[in-house]
Amino acid sequence: MRQIFLDTETTGLSADNGDRVIEIGCVELFNRKLTGNNRHFYLNPGRDSHEEALKVHGITSEFLKDKPKFEAVADDLLEYLQGADVIIHNAAFDVGFLNKELELIGRPLFREFVASVTDTLVMAKEMFPGKRNSLNALCDRLGVDNSGRTLHGALLDAELLADVYINLTRGQDALLIDLGSTDSTGPSIAQIDLRAIELPVLAANDQEIAAHDDVLKQIDKASGNKTLWRAAA
Hints:
Blueprint: E1 2-10, E2 21-30, E3 33-34, E4 39-42, H1 51-57, H2 61-64, H3 70-81, E5 85-88, H4 91-104, E6 116-119, H5 120-127, H6 135-142, H7 154-168, H8 170-173, E7 176-177, E8 192-193, H9 206-222, H10 228-232
Parallel strand pairs: 1-5, 5-6
Antiparallel strand pairs: 1-2, 2-3, 2-4, 7-8
């Protein structure tokens, strides 16, 4: 399974009111392993960031003035994302901005290029109802090191999100043993779902019960008749 963790930074909060994407970070996982095949773009939005947005990401107009427009990187980005399962924290925000960028250059909507979009904010709210579920809060809760996140950055946030997602999904996926080989020189073995296996219950026979009682009596005697099961009797 090819998954892309994606994050953006923008000039403000409203794509409909003219705010633009200034940074895109993508991190690839294949079969739940980092591949190093990532993408990172800084973009010239043709406008300044709002003061509050600048406080969040720290990316100045001066830094961005020689960076490419979105149109110049769109083909590379869309080819990279083609057919992937894309995972975003607060997906509505990032997808809304990417849709606006694509609309401005006459391209189809974002979801036309990817297999699916998963929102980890929705996942986290279902798993931790009533709790803070920002990326920082999830990092703290799940033991993900975010000490380098003094400012928001799209690539760093995508990397943190990948780590958070692995932790969020570990409970269910721990029961699925993926034996599929990604090595083209080796065989591909189907995934085994342990949830489909019904384990038999074997009752102890009379001899085993008697042996167990004998062990308990020996432990009780060695403790001076102070075992917990005697006290509870």
